[in-house]
Automatic annotation (TrEMBL):
Gene3D superfamilies, sorted: Vaccinia Virus protein VP39
Protein's name according to its UniProt entry: Methyltransferase domain-containing protein
Occurrences of domain Methyltransferase (ranges): 66-165
Source species, domain of life: Bacteria
GO biological process, any: methylation
Entries under InterPro entries matching the protein: Methyltransf_25, SAM-dependent_MTases_sf
Lineage of the organism: Bacteria, Pseudomonadati, Pseudomonadota, Alphaproteobacteria, Sphingomonadales
Pfam families: Methyltransf_25
Amino acid sequence: MESDGIALGSRGGLRDRLALYGAQCSVFFRGFLEHPRMVGSIIPSSRFTVRSMLAPVDWGSCRLFVEYGPGIGTFCRPVLEKLRGDGMLIVIDTNPIYIEYLQKTIRDKRFRAVLGSAADVEQIVRDHGFDHADYVLSGLPFSTLPAGVAPAIAAATHRVLRPGGAFLVYQFTAACREYMRPHFARIDAGFEWLNILPCKLFWGWKTADEGEPVAA
Ligand SMILES: C[S@@+](CC[C@H](N)C(=O)[O-])C[C@H]1O[C@@H](n2cnc3c(N)ncnc32)[C@H](O)[C@@H]1O
């Protein structure tokens, strides 16, 4: 797989790696300046957050992995390194700066970058020929999204997941858990100190016998 002109998995020199990281941070920061409340952070997630967040994923059973809010692709590259050869990674972001950057820099036949809202995940998954996703990862700033968007995304995510699949969420606050709770009977929680800022991690599991929740 190629990315940013550097073959992933190769160990480029320190200067190359720093130059790449600097270029990625500058694209990320440009996206933040244009839409601060939608981006919610001035710096991409750390590799420690990526590793902790993805640790429970069963890659052997994952055909479709969906990511909301990929930014400059901090998670995309590690996900593609682990994803099956016949798998697909669909990323969805509302910011055209990020989608154009990802389309230009990640050249992998299993990768699709979609300009749109996570609230439309079901339609986007259908458009790519799938009924369900195995895992959905979110870096969305739930607490600063426009009113009504966060609960709509949590509900759509539960519907789009296959039984046994999971909603993986990282955030600076625990706000997302309130949106997950009506849909996911089991939510595991964790914390990653080695991130700017340290962040909370949640894994909402759609259990095999779970139907749609009954309205209160
Ligand atoms: C904190 S950034 C996450 C960046 C990246 N995932 C990382 O870990 O470094 C949040 C991202 O969510 C995107 N976003 C905000 N609202 C969205 C929505 N409704 N649907 C999809 N993406 C959205 C923003 O454009 C931004 O790329």
